[in-house]
Amino acid sequence: FCRQCSPAMLMRRGPEKNSIFGDCIQTVFLCLFPDKDIIYICPFSGALKGKVFITNYRLYFKSSDADSAVMLNVPLGVICRVEKMGGASSRGENSYGLDITCKDMRNLRFALKQEGHSRRDIFEILFRYAFPVSHGLSLFAYLSQEKYEENGWNIYKPMEEFRRQGLPNDKWRISFINKSYELCDTYPTVLAVPYKATEEDLRKVATFRSRGRIPVLSWIHRENQAVIARCSQPLVGMSGKRNKDDERYLDLVREANGTSKLIIYDARPNVNAVANKATGGGYEGDEYQNAELIFLDIHNIHVMRESLKKLKDIVYPNVEESHWLSSLESTHWLEHIKLVLSGAIQVADKVSSGNSVVVHCSDGWDRTAQLTSLAMLMLDSHYRTLRGFQVLLEKEWISFGHKFASRIGHGDKNHADQDRSPIFVQFIDCVWQMTKQFPTAFEFNERLLLTILDHLYSCRFGTFLYNCESARDQHEVRLKTVSLWSLVNSSNDIYLNPFYTPESGRVLYPVASMRHLELWVSYYIRWNPRIRQQVGLHVGVHNVMHASTLSAY
Amino acid sequence: MLSLGSGGGKSAKPSFVSYVTPEEINSEKDTPKEEKHPDLLPGEVVFCSASTVLKLTQDELSQRGTFGTLLCTNFRVSFISDEETGEETAPLFKNKLYGENDIPLSCVDNIYGGYEDKRKLVTGSQVKNKYPSKIIIHCKDLRVFQFALTFCKEEDAKRIFQGIVHHCLEPKSLKNIFAFSFCENTAFPGMLGNVCFTKLVHNMQQRTMMFDSAEDWAQDLKRTKGSCRLVTENANFGLSPNLPQYFIVPESVSEADMTLFQGKGLPIWCWSHHSGCALFKTSNLPLQQEDNVPQSYMEKMLTAVAHNYLYSVKTEDLSDTLPTVQDIQLSYSKFKQFFFIDSTTDFWVSDMKWFSSLDNCGWLDIIRSCLQKAMEVVECLEKENNNVLIMEDGGSDLCCVISSLAQLMLDSYYRTLQGFQSLVQKEWVAGGHNFLDRCNQLHLKDKENVSPVFLLFLECVWQLLQQYGPAFQFSETYLTVLSDSIHVPVFSTFLFNSQHHRASILRADSSHSQRGTLNCPTVWDWSVQFDCKAQQLFINPLYAEKPKLDKSMRRPHRPKHQRQLSLPSATFKTPPKKGFFKDETDSLKKILRVKRISRWMLSPDSPQPSSTSREFYEAWQRKPLDYHGLLLPCLDGPAVRIWMQRYLRWIQEVQIFGGGLVTVLSKVSDLLDEVQELQRQLDRHSSSLTSNHQRPRPRPISAETDSRLSVLLSSSFPFTTLKNNWSYKPAIPTGLLQSLMNSGNLADTEDDDQESLVRA
């Protein structure tokens, strides 16, 4: 197939700095498409002549213009869609070429000469290697041979994390009922459940919870022993089925710290929860004694996807000039952020006042993960450290089965799949909003968040691959791929916030008002060279230190 | 209808003459002794008061509040709580002139009367014998007060309501402004009072130049290496009362030119670029179609400007492209309403449409267009090295905004605290901005001349500050306090329409008084308002101080003018000094002049330069950022923001407890302390090796190093600190879903494949 490939082009890179690509991924570079002349139609600098390389990891472009230093270095995993533009009869200048849509808020357009088969070749290579899963090929993470000082797979050990929280104790026990994913194939193997609930109880409850995702403990408050439990919706259905075991089980959750009324936060809008009854789902009704149900009105994955799409329309390639704020408002993106944050604030507020809560949405892997992890970030300063944050992601998102593969579509050519949704991006945005409001409370900086989002798509690391732990085990992710945390923890100083002031015991309540929420410009508009990256406060602190040393002399 | 302090309140006298001196009132007042008084300032007298007034907390629903006494003096409306405040910790950022429950009379923006469940704007004339159950006061510094009168005696309630309305809303004479009685009774040390900063600004002995002497002008001209002519003939306003006492004009302007149109049309020097070209401003000549005198005069003036450097001049009539002062007023009056929050419900309801509301009032667009215009002026000077003449009708509104913004962008001296104050003195105070009229210090009913032009300038400065923090020596807090000070009727800075106005008022006054000329403090006498500790918050700890090259060449002012950021010039490069073209000049002059003037006369503003100025910005942006060089603002949508500290500081719902930028600043201060402590230890160590002598170290710049404080910090620091009665409860948005309900049918689709669920 690959006519361009000759043995000579199989470049093997040692540990030395990779001179072409400017980083040092120690891997087998399969140079699939050697330096061809191409025109990159840059939305900011206009059409640029240059050379393009495509490897099994990335698309690389460098303009041959001496005075413009435009360079592209795009991991193929970022590509969402590749399309041909123009045909053999296209006449206009640069009207014949390729249009590439990326998952990270940008599009790339290349123009080619109509002669020869260069477009067909480049299209086929891109299509094949950007979507390896659709072509029966391995994701790049399985080919990478990067070596790091630290093994990121060791960052999260469920038992250690439970022990840190003071578990097990006399009210909560650790259950291994799911060790071979029999109870629930999208849950982790180790679960914390009420001490009084037997394994048999758990099995019974699992029949009444969507996909067997039973209520389990995510976090416990050290002083007041209030817990955040998470689960999926109860299978109430049209007929309004009841399940005594489920009712009793939730009462055990309540009882554990003597909470008088268990608060159940249903992340969905009320109407959607009602509508779910038609498909067998539903919500906890009055039959649940000593429980109160509160809807948090957060919309579903489809609404979020469309909202981000609208946002892209107003920021890429050019930032909407007239009525920017009204345009921003019409995307509703920040309004969704506000809803998610305000839901998490309510959860954190209840728990810190000693009241145990249960959080669920439909399946408990999208909105639920957002709410529990954000509430935990507000409540527990450990999660605001560089490593603690990694644990939080590993625990609440990765191990509890946020469907990364379906939401991101790693290596999948079906760009229009209805399962795609930027739920995790939205969560990271919420975290960013918190770091903006509390600039000294987080040990990590914005760069970590950007790095996480870059590698959410890149497929260079195994961290975000697959939908759940059982699938990861099956594909031996931990054995065959490198963890993103290996990269981060091997050079962690660049991810540290110089203003971090460790402080424990205080709950951080961000203000979920539009007055304080702002667009994350350095992520959503980062491709636009006009938007100057936020002037780093680091520069400021450097200056201060410098000035103070000077003045001391 | 109003009888001040006479106790009756029902007297049927015709409209009260308000032009009484405080002494007269003082003699009539009969306020009972047992009533509480604030610590009155020198010259302050109480007009009326009422006890058992309930000051309501912000949340309407709770109807909670504090009982106390409400007073109205010739300086403020003041509320004194009955509750024993005890020895609670003194607020860190205390204003010496007024406290948190005081409203200086000129700071009152609007008064509303609350009747049952509706409220009405009080315009003054409506006040008869009725009084509302609640007085709601919106302040110009965005505070909101609500006082319930339902528990006080009817007489008291009527009197205090009428008193407040009268003194806050009715027109008064300039002499009745508090500053005059205050200053007669106080001695000010003048600018020497600024001892707080001499410690902080340790690099050079800077002072604020007042530009009320020939020396200040000469110094600024010298500093920028300008080659224009200093005019001293107007020291006694002999040339024209419209002109400043001292000013600078192009060299070839004659004395006769200056008097021809009372100073109108005369190009006044603002600033010289290192290339030699300069910025001038002027007020438009009156339009007279019939005779040619103005036209030929204007030609002459343009030639004079062009003559300044390379016979080039660009003119810009600001009234053509910028909003009028009325537009500015209109937009701001819509904008400010968003920050007067009466209740929590109000807050969350308005949160839904927050962005579009902001957009619709256009305030940010006005800020953007001013910054844009200033950037175009900068481009002419910096890139094309053209002389620039900006003009507008009065020559003292948008000309002041644009010229001072351009200077801030070009000259890092003006980004120091003293430099900034000097700039305001030069362009605004000496430049004859009509502060008295624009700020409506006299509460005139005819609001045609009222417009927050100076505030608009501060807004623009804030935008630059938030984009390039380390480039500014002063802090956001400084700007906020400066914007508040406009409405503290004590400072001469904001009381007059021009230098001539000031001189005539003060001269007239001193002839009546035995004490000689009045000595009102200027706003720059910060110690009138704040102690040294509070003033430390005016300094930006993140300021990237310019590294000193050589200590020995210390001069009283900035030793060298900035040069490092000259962009490639499109036309000529270095200024060939006079005589170089001697022979060609005549023809060159003719060509250039004719071109410019014809353009000027025919189409005052032809091509919109936005696309070229975009290039200018981008070219600048590609270069490494130098905080001491040229600064250009980014004007894209997300970059122009709301001045959060000024506008949101009093709104409880948006306080980020334990958060906000201040946490960073306090961390930086801690780090600085640490560094200096280590340095001290090091010094002690090394000096103990040689001798026992120890050098004293300067105290670090510190927001507040008290560790207790970090718990109390909030995003509104230093204006509000967390108090015990404020709950730690988070603000939870209410009524969230309404605007999202029409998200289309996607909202109804459920997340995942539901068929499988049914099977489950």
From TrEMBL, chain A:
Substrate binds at N300, I301, C361, S362, D363, G364, W365, D366, R367. The active site is at C361. One of its GO terms (biological process) is negative regulation of autophagosome assembly. Residues 152-524 form the Myotubularin phosphatase domain. It comes from Myripristis murdjan. PROSITE patterns: PPASE_MYOTUBULARIN (PS51339), TYR_PHOSPHATASE_1 (PS00383), TYR_PHOSPHATASE_2 (PS50056). It is found in: Cell membrane; Cell projection, Filopodium; Cell projection, Ruffle; Cytoplasm, Myofibril, Sarcomere. One of its GO terms (cellular component) is sarcomere. PANTHER family: MYOTUBULARIN, MYOTUBULARIN-RELATED. It catalyses: 1,2-dihexadecanoyl-sn-glycero-3-phospho-(1D-myo-inositol-3,5-bisphosphate) + H2O = 1,2-dihexadecanoyl-sn-glycero-3-phospho-(1D-myo-inositol-5-phosphate) + phosphate; a 1,2-diacyl-sn-glycero-3-phospho-(1D-myo-inositol-3-phosphate) + H2O = a 1,2-diacyl-sn-glycero-3-phospho-(1D-myo-inositol) + phosphate; 1,2-dioctanoyl-sn-glycero-3-phospho-(1-D-myo-inositol-3-phosphate) + H2O = 1,2-dioctanoyl-sn-glycero-3-phospho-(1D-myo-inositol) + phosphate; a 1,2-diacyl-sn-glycero-3-phospho-(1D-myo-inositol-3,5-bisphosphate) + H2O = a 1,2-diacyl-sn-glycero-3-phospho-(1D-myo-inositol-5-phosphate) + phosphate. This is Myotubularin. The lineage of its organism: Eukaryota, Metazoa, Chordata, Craniata, Vertebrata. It is a peripheral membrane protein. Belongs to the protein-tyrosine phosphatase family. Non-receptor class myotubularin subfamily.
Automatic annotation (TrEMBL), chain B:
Keywords: Cytoplasm, Sarcoplasmic reticulum. It comes from Myripristis murdjan (pinecone soldierfish). The gene is MTMR12. PROSITE patterns: PPASE_MYOTUBULARIN. Residues 1-38, 683-703 are annotated as: Disordered. Coiled coil: none annotated. One of its GO terms (biological process) is skeletal muscle fiber development. One of its GO terms (cellular component) is membrane. This is Myotubularin-related protein 12. Transmembrane segments: none annotated. Residues 1-10 have a biased composition (Gly residues). Residues 26-38 have a biased composition (Basic and acidic residues). Belongs to the protein-tyrosine phosphatase family. Non-receptor class myotubularin subfamily. The keyword Transmembrane does not apply. It comes from the Eukaryota. Residues 211-647 form the Myotubularin phosphatase domain. It is found in: Cytoplasm, Myofibril, Sarcomere; Sarcoplasmic reticulum. The keyword Cell membrane does not apply.
